[in-house]
Amino acid sequence: MRSLKEDTAMISVTGISKSFGEKKVLDEISMTIGDGEIFGLLGPSGAGKTTLIRVLTGQLKFEEGAAMINGKDVRKLTGADKKQFGVMMDDFGLYERLTCYQNLRVFADIYGVGDAEISTVLKEVKLEDSEKKEVKKLSKGMKERLRLARALLAHPQVLFLDEPTSGLDPQTSSEIHEIIRKRKDAGTIIFLTTHNMTEAEKLCDHLVLLNEGKIVEKGAPKELCLRYDHQKSIELVTTKGETISLQMDRENAEKTSSQIAEFLKEGKLSTIHSKEPNLETVFMELTGRKLEV
C-alpha cells in the first residue's frame, strides 16, 4: 500500500451495500474523501455509520459495490496496510486492570513503536500525569482520550473516529476537537462519524447526511445550509405576546421586510429573532427525524 501522502490520495466508496439478514444497513453508499481533510458522516444512532467504518477498515464484508483506500481494494487489505489506520470505536475495549501506559504498550508492540511514542501520545491527549493510573480508575472522558491515544499511537495516515465525543462534557470534547484539527493540519485523513450537529459544523470540511443506510444529502456544512435557504425565517413577538414567523428567503425577503417595518411603525413589536437553516433543520426536512435520536 503506497503512502497516503503521495499524489492525490483518497478514500473512494462506490455503491456499497451491506445487509444483516433481511435488514439492509447500507444502501448503495458512494462518496469520495480527499487527502488531509476531515470528512463527516452525520446521522442518528442506527443510521449505518459504524457499519461503514467496519467495512472500510476490513472488519466486515459487503455484498455490492467497491471501496478503495489509495487505490487498494479494502477487501484485500493486509496486516501491514491496517497498521496505517488509527481506529477509535466504543467497543474497542481497554484493559481495565492495566495502567494507561501498559494499555498503550500492548499496541506499541503490535505497531512496532517505542516508549518515546507512548510518552508523546499520552502528552498529546493530556494523560501524561495519569500514565501509571489503572484504567478502571479513569473517568469516562479520560478513557475516551486513552482510546484516542491508542488510535494515534502509530501516526496513522487515516484516522477513523466513531462518535469520539459522545457523552462527554464540553471541555473534554473541545480538547479532543483540538487534537483532531492538529492531526488534520499534519496531513492525516480523518473519517468522523457523529450525530452531533455542532461537532460536524465545527470540524468537517465535507460531510454526508446518512439516514437508515441511505445518503440523503452531501456537501460542505455551509454549502448544505445555503442550499436550504428557504428555511430562513424571522420570528417576531408582538407587544400582545403573539409569536409570528415570517419567511426570509430570497423570494420573500422584500415582503417580510415591509411587514417588519409596519410592525415597528405601529409600535407593535416586542422582540425580533432571525432563524437560519442548520444541519439539524436540513436533516429534519429531508427525513422527518432528529439527528440526536
Structure overview:
It contains 10 helices and 13 strands. The strands form 3 sheets. The protein has a 6-stranded mixed sheet, with helices on both faces. The chain has a 4-stranded antiparallel sheet with strand order 2-1-4-5, covered by helices on one side. The chain has a 3-stranded antiparallel sheet with strand order 12-11-13, with helices on one face. The two termini are 38 Å apart. It is α/β, with parallel strands linked by helices. Among the domains are: 10-84 and 156-224, Rossmann fold (3-Layer(aba) Sandwich); 229-276, no CATH class.
Shape: globular
User: Beta-sheet strand percentage?
Assistant: 25-35%
How many helical elements?
Answer: 10
* Low-confidence region ranges: 1-9
Write a compact overview of the structure shown.
Helix content is 34%, strand content 28%. The chain has 10 helices and 13 strands.
Q: What is the fold's blueprint, element by element?
A:
Blueprint: E1 10-20, E2 23-34, E3 38-42, H1 49-56, E4 64-69, E5 72-73, H2 79-82, E6 85-88, H3 100-111, H4 115-124, H5 140-152, E7 158-162, H6 170-185, E8 189-194, H7 197-203, E9 206-211, E10 214-219, H8 221-227, E11 233-238, E12 243-247, H9 253-265, E13 269-275, H10 279-287
Helix pairs in contact: 3-4, 4-5
